[in-house]
Write a structure and sequence with these properties.
The structure holds 2 protein chains of 2 kinds. Chain A is 5% helix and 52% strand. Chain A is mainly β. Chain A has a single domain, classed as Methylamine Dehydrogenase, Chain H (7 Propeller). Helix content of chain B is 35%, strand content 16%. Chain B is built from 12 helices and 12 strands. In chain B, helix 4 runs parallel beside helix 11 and helix 5 crosses helix 6. The longest helix of chain B is centred in the C-terminal third of the chain and has 20 residues. Chain B is globular. The two termini of chain B are 29 Å apart. Classes of the chains: A mainly beta, B alpha/beta.
Chain lengths: 329, 406
């Protein structure tokens, strides 16, 4: 069983060229994609056209996390109500394929060679490993209830998953599908960023904090507490996080506190808070580190932040309950 | 207990190898895990013929699925705890006892205490709860009240060995009172049902009215009868005429009067309290803050029943115990009790604000939901009402006014 997943992708990978998806070439369109949980679509925004919505891609029910393949020719989107990860051709802006998952997929990662999908199934308390080419479920790893955030180490050997109910980060051997460590963090851990191979950051929604886990000891080495001026600790509910491509700055979406925090990754200093919309979760940063996009789940809009001046320059209505945002650059 | 639990926690990686790798095709017996597992049992007690649930199937034999007992909620809590326990080598279990008297329950619990049970989830009416608490005083066991809203249990009749996850009557009427104040629906006509609990609910509403600047226009008694001579106390149109008001507040735990008040009032006014807009710890239509996921876990076990306030209170009680066991890495009663009572408990209520127990009366702080049968209209507390420490303490009896001394 444990070796099967190494063989099968190779086999089906070879077949892909014949029978699989042949996406049209699409390179750095610059388009911004926002998944709208309750509109069941993805709003496609063109920054080059004055940030207008150029297309609404209809998806299966409750689209949430999104991820590009390495070449950005395909965009995968997890649709929680229909238990499927849909595949969108970035050039055509159409759904071209469906990959069935367990119940209520929320967040996922592709393996570095795009062959496997690691997906958390919120309602079955598992992380599934799915072979993209064959759509076969290679194995599943039981987790605490409501698994959410998924991260993959740079060598592809270690998988990290949060359990929102268990207050844990599971450290999983990605090849064997075995949980190696469980790190207790704070209340309702949600998402990850990985500033280096030595540490991983996890947002704790109900503690208003980010735990920094040392990956040699598997212990929480440091905890960042967020509190924008004028807010109560209980309003601060961090979920989505992003890193600038230069590795210097972390962005933390503070949920009900309607702000994002800018954190200096090296010094851990919380540099500033920027006002955005209501329940700011999903975030992404343009490749040139000049623009930050924030999906505001309860005001149905997208905040566009100028990274240099650290101000909200535009708020764009996108759809009902925007969840995640990704940029094709 | 402590020693073996530590051993279990130290041996996590070993246990994991056997238990966590679950191939789709087969599930090998987790031998190493069974060896390392620490057993944590949680008690659950209820009365066989608890009159509070009589209405559940009393209307011409038609079942009211909203009036389920809390036990399924505890089972969902157990599942959640077991998910975590499996990873840490802790084996959680529920022991349930149902009896026709508190004396019988006292005996059962005494046996459980010898067996290492430290927490007992209690679905009991107020008088039975106090009796049981007094009978168990001094023993290393805490009761967790998951169904009695009585303010006296958090006031003059409070007991040090009782925690309350079910909201107090004062919290429930305060949630409603805040909403009425925010809407500026400040004049209320009160209809009081025939049960003693109805009188307590009206008493709580009087306190709420004073706290949030509402006016009780008049209080009227409502009876469940077809007696023509009593029609002014049983005909809703007659009961609600002769005065003006913004809302009708109805207190009726029997449910049979209250459910007929909306749309039958003399004036076209909304109904709140036991019918119409009802303050709840939980209702099936709450879908935010992972509410839908909890809902589904409950429905997987119990459809057509859906989680209600008691079910939620039982779920959160087991969640609290589970998290105390996991976080303290220690099965000692004192350590678990101290953990639960700490100010920064930060318990996930699945209603937004995290919960913790008030030190002055052992009541779980929590947001409350104002619900119609189909939707959650609003969540209390409201931003218009702030508290110097924790906004959740705008609901219910705050430290300076408590009548409780342990």
């Amino acid at each position: 069983m444990t070796h099967l997943h190494k063989i099968v992708p190779a086999l089906f990978g070879a077949m892909l060229g014949i029978a699989g998806i042949l996406p049209a070439a699409a390179v750095d369109t610059g388009l911004v994609f926002v998944s709208n949980e309750r509109s069941n679509n993805i709003a496609v925004i063109d920054p080059a056209k004055d940030n207008t919505i150029v297309k609404l891609i209809a998806t299966a029910g409750r689209p949430r996390d999104m991820s590009f393949n390495q070449g950005h020719t395909l965009l995968y989107v997890a649709c929680g109500d229909d238990d499927v990860i849909q595949v969108i051709d970035v050039a055509k802006l159409e759904v071209v394929d469906n990959i069935p998952t367990g119940r209520s997929p929320e967040m996922f990662r592709l393996s570095h060679d795009d062959a496997l999908i690691y997906v958390s199934n919120e309602e079955t308390s598992t992380v599934q490993v799915i072979d993209v080419a064959s759509k076969a479920i290679m194995f599943e790893v039981p987790t605490g209830a409501e698994p959410e955030g998924i991260a993959l180490s740079s060598d592809g050997k270690t998988l990290y998953a949060t359990s929102e109910v268990a207050d844990m980060v599971h450290v999983i051997d990605a090849e064997e599908g075995v949980v190696m460590e469980n790190v207790l963090v704070e209340t309702r851990p949600r998402r990850f960023i990985q500033p280096s191979d030595a540490e991983i950051w996890v947002s704790n929604e109900l503690s208003g904090t980010v735990s920094i886990i040392d990956l040699t000891t598997f212990e929480v080495a440091e905890t960042l507490e967020f509190l924008p001026p004028g807010f109560r600790a209980v309003d601060v509910t961090p979920v989505g996080m992003s890193m600038t491509h230069d590795g210097k700055t972390a962005i933390v979406g503070l949920g009900r506190a309607n702000h994002v925090a800018f954190v200096d990754i090296a010094t851990r200093e919380i540099e500033t808070y920027v006002l955005v919309g209501s329940r700011a979760w999903g975030t992404d940063i343009s490749r040139d580190d000049k623009v930050l996009y924030v999906a505001n789940g309860l005001s149905d809009d997208l905040s566009i932040i100028d990274m240099e001046s650290r101000t909200n320059v535009l708020t764009l209505p996108v759809g009902r309950i925007p969840h995640s945002v990704v940029i094709d650059d | 207990m402590t020693r073996t639990l530590r051993k279990a926690l130290a041996g996590i990686a070993m246990a994991m190898l056997a238990s966590a790798a679950m191939p789709v095709v087969a599930q090998p017996a987790p031998a190493a895990q069974a060896e390392a597992a620490e057993h944590v049992k949680i008690g659950y007690v209820e009365l066989d013929n608890d009159p509070r649930y009589a209405a559940a199937g009393a209307f011409a034999g038609i079942q009211f699925y909203t009036l389920a007992r809390p036990f399924t909620g505890a089972e969902v809590g157990l599942d959640d705890a077991q998910d975590i326990g499996r990873l840490l080598g802790i084996d959680f279990a529920l022991e349930k006892a149902s009896a026709d008297s508190t004396a019988a329950l006292t005996e059962t619990i005494a046996g459980w205490v010898d067996d290492g049970i430290s927490f007992v989830v209690a679905d009991l009416p107020a008088d039975a709860l106090v009796e049981l608490a007094d009978a168990l005083a001094g023993q290393p066991v805490m009761l967790i009240n998951v169904s009695a809203p009585d303010d006296a249990l958090r006031g003059e009749q409070c007991r040090a060995n009782v925690l309350h996850t079910y909201p107090s009557q004062a919290m429930l009427t305060d949630a409603l009172g805040q909403y009425l104040a925010v809407k500026n629906w400040r004049r209320a006509l009160v209809l009081q049902g025939p049960q003693p609990d109805d009188a307590l609910m009206v008493e709580a509403f009087r306190r709420t009215a004073q706290k949030f600047g509402l006016t009780i226009v008049e209080e009227r008694q409502a009876l469940l009868t077809n007696d023509p001579n009593a029609r002014e106390q049983s005909n809703v149109a007659l009961m609600t005429e002769g005065v003006d008001y913004d809302v009708v507040f109805v207190a009726d735990h029997g449910f049979e009067i209250g459910r007929y008040v909306p749309y039958q009032t003399s004036l076209p006014r909304p109904v709140v309290g036991s019918a119409g807009l009802v303050p709840e710890a939980w209702t099936w239509s709450w879908d935010q803050d992972a509410g839908a996921q909890l809902q589904h876990r409950y429905e997987d076990k119990a459809l057509p029943y859906r989680m209600n306030s008691g079910g939620w209170a039982a779920w959160v009680a087991v969640e609290a115990i589970g998290s105390a066991v996991v976080r303290t890495k220690n099965g000692d009663f004192d350590a678990l009790r101290d953990y639960l009572l700490r100010e920064r408990l930060n318990l996930d209520t699945v209603k937004g604000n995290p919960g913790s127990f008030r030190s002055w009366d052992h009541q779980l702080r929590q947001p409350l939901l104002l619900a119609t049968p189909d939707a959650v209209i609003a969540r209390a507390p409201f931003t218009e009402f702030l508290h110097e420490v924790n906004d959740l303490d705008t609901l219910g009896v705050d430290a300076p006014e408590t009548q409780c001394s342990f």
